[in-house]
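[job 0412] stage=fold_complex status=start
inputs:
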Amino acid sequence: MNALDRDTLGAVLQPVSGARGLPNNFYVDAGTFEEEKRRVFFDNWAGIGFAKDIPEPADARPINFLGQPLLAVRDREGRVRVFQNACRHRGMILVDEPCRLRGMIRCKYHSWVYALDGELRSTPHVGGPGNNLHEGIDRASLGLVEIRSHVWRDVIFVNVSGDAPDFETYASALIERWRDFERPLFHGGADSSFRLDVATNWKLAVENYCESYHLPWVHPGLNSYSRLEDHYHIIEQGRYAGQGTEVYNPSLGDGSLHFSDFADLPARWDSAAEYIAFFPNVLFGVHRDHAYAILLEPTGLESTAEHIEIYYADEAMTGPEYSSLRAENAALWKDIFVEDIGVVEGMQKGRHALAFDGGKFSPVMDEPTHAFHHWVASRFAGG
Amino acid sequence: MSGGPEQGLDRKLIEAHGRGDGDTLTRLYRQAAELAEQAGDVDRACFFYVHAYVFALEAGHRDADAIRARLRHFGRED
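[job 0412] stage=fold_complex status=done
writing structure:
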């Protein structure tokens, strides 16, 4: 890091009242993006997918995570595991499309075979035709490279570097905050899943999600039932930031049918809901009767895929009786997230303005956004 | 493979490869291996057992252990 970068990051690391935002290079510079992959994504616990997409043992799903070819597999015991999606022999990609494996994973090139726990089980002709053995081939040391992974709230998280604290420690503050919601989640199915492709750097989607300041301007429809003053900030320095509302009051359909609430929730959740960006790239929302997760997939320096998945408290909510209610709920959220596209894409365009200096925060309204900037800047300032 | 019973196998194997039919590949390669073993050609038998074994593992075929046992018998698999 050069002196200029140090000064710039130093400004981001000031208290919010005197801080500037992350400089333009964090949004438009390919070199910074490359460094960000390691410092922000690989060195921490980042979301890469959803366990619901590999529901049964032997389900396998290739995932391109910032150029890293990964393979998510549900093993025979039902545990989600993530491997480097490359054969230990010649680096051939092992699985190139989602599938349910019948047996083991066979490399299509020279047919080395791996069990679902990554163990290398056969090395055909490796010692010459008809001989699968050679003293130079130690299968025990040639299993698939496993990536540290953990599933929480159905999101598959990975720590590529292997250096982060274990997930329960890394996420302990949020796990504790939402202890009331540590219940099974039931995905609503196809009508509760959608993707938005947005021409913005992934961080601007996080930043917009963190704060309620924009709500009356970008989401005027919320003014009638969820006003700006009904929201509060949520900040856990170094881990997450977001906002909550005190007036959650769902009114879907004609009122004759309601989603079940999560069991045994304390009374405060009767009307509260919270929206938290868990650093770096997963946005969560919890309400008494449903929850969602948004995985931000950086598909490029200036492009992001937002994968939105909605979950319910009770398996009955996933049945046909509730399909129109689920569709209405998904449409409601989709409308809101689509309303945000104009501003996150607009901010991305603005980051090409040479004289933009990172921006001036509102000391009162932008604290959660600054908390995210502070975390990102700290990843870079750490050497 | 050329001539005799292997010729028919050859065609069926190519067809099974074309379909990605792991069960059939397992069965046919094992059949080819057993023919070679009966003819006393251990190297040729093991070549086919290797293929039968790999496709059996991929297909989760119930014969995988038995095929592996033949390879182990000849010192070609652990």
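[job 0412] summary: The longest strand of chain A covers residues 290-300.
[job 0412] exit 0
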